[in-house]
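Onboarding guide, step 5: your first structure request.
Type a short instruction followed by the sequence, for example:

Predict the 3D structure of this protein.
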Amino acid sequence: MDITGTIEKILPTQTGTSAAGKEWKKLSFTLRTTEEYNNFYCFDVFGDEKVDNFLKYNKEGQQVKVDFNVKCNEWKDKYFVSLDAWKIFKAESANLPDPKDEAPDSDNLPF
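The system replies with structure tokens like these:
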């Protein structure tokens, strides 16, 4: 799946150690699209290299396209859903709708 929008907030990097003793690093960021509904998302970036590259090449206010997977985990009969970003790159401005163009124009009405 993919989605295009603007990075609103980059949250602090989280680190820890797995049960197997391996170090891990995770970063979350929020993205807002120009859609009318369901336009706010929070993605996770997992892994040292991916987190470091994300911080190196992205900043708040930047328009990006995010390729991601939806992941669901069960824990004690509760379910948790996360959006795992696996590829993030700068959006081409030609593909982004201009919010000013969203207002209906009386000449373009379908009736």
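Each response can be followed by summary notes, for example: The domain at 2-92 is CATH 2.40.50.140 (OB fold (Dihydrolipoamide Acetyltransferase, E2P)).
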